[in-house]
Amino acid sequence: MPSQKQIKWSQLRVGITVIFASLVLALLLFLMSGTTGFFSHRITLISFFDNASGLRNGAPVRLSGVDIGNVVGIRIVPDKDKQATPVEIIMKVSMKYSFNLRKDSVTTLSTAGVLGETFMDIDSSQAIGPPAQNGDTLPTHVHPDFNEVVRSSQSTLQNMDALLKRADRILAFAESGKGSLGKLIYDPTLYDRFSQTVGEFKGIVDQIARGEGSLGRLISNNDAYNKFVATLDRMNAVVDELQQGKGTAGKFLKDPSLYNNANDTVANLKKVSEDLNAGKGTAGRFLKDEELAKKIDTTMTKLAALTSSLEAGQGTAGKLFKDETLYNNATQMLEETRNLVKAIRENPKTYLSIKLHVF
């Protein structure tokens, strides 16, 4: 029978073994669930959100999908400056990836899958600032969570449901043969008209195939094709003559003298224009000489005054144009002259007498 001392020693060994096993199990659990080494250097980072979105203490912190730490604190701060984002999230992250963890790295609350665990994700793809230090506050970017997406899509689903019900009513109405669409689908008159139209179109195609009608003759008769080929041959001949410089158009295209003459003409026109601008020659002086312009203006003024006087019947010339007495006297004189000539012709002896005087 074992002594009391042996029993106590055995109980003590069992207790020590249980305690050691518990410590080893706790260490293994920590190493298995933890994201960093037991003796690795860690820093504290802070972010502020408007909603924790189900995030819990101990949730992983990931940098580009790699676990670098854990969430160690979640609380609501009473700071008035943080009323829009009152939720403070404190993270412990390893310095192993400090080369890619910067002060302007953006933190977001992400979910592993649709219904997975919420975790903290750090994005450094656009970060260009210095490395993050202990106690830094990282900027945040809020993504709409699943519930917000569902709530925002409810109105869309309701609209889609209303549209589907309306489309179902329209189809039911069309299936009953009512309305334009229903008649289009179920009225045999449309089919009969379509069949008749197809038959008429087939008749037209048969006539064309037999060479009947203008279109049929155009397709079946070789004369149109021969004329078209002949026209192409004549056009080719005309083009060849143009390229060879034959005819008026060919000379116009190929003869360099035409270009030279045109160039000389343009040069002469340019020289004439320069002379006109310089006031040379009669036309140049007419355009540039101010004295000549003044004289012409004075002459035109005098002519206008003279014309006005003539219109008013002033002066000898004006009376000549306007006074009817002169016209009447001239008419009477011409009439008397005509009568005198007539009388002389009828009886010349009366007016033509010769007297001889002898001294």
Which stretches are low in confidence, meaning pLDDT under 50 for 5 or more residues running?
Answer: none
Oligomer: single chain
Tell me the fraction of residues in β-strands, as a range.
Answer: 5-15%
- Mean pLDDT, all residues: 78
| Basic shape | elongated
Strand order of the largest sheet: 1-4-3-2-6-5
Biggest sheet overview? 6 strands, mixed
Radius of gyration over alpha carbons?
60 Å
**N-end to C-end Cα span:** 228 Å
Description:
- With 359 residues, the protein is of the alpha+beta class.
- It has 13 helices and 6 strands.
- Strand 2 (60-63) and strand 3 form a beta hairpin.
- Helix 6 (222-244) crosses helix 7, helix 8 packs across helix 9 (281-288) and helix 10 crosses helix 11 (315-322).
- The radius of gyration is 60 Å and the shape is elongated.
- The model has no long low-confidence stretch (mean pLDDT 78).
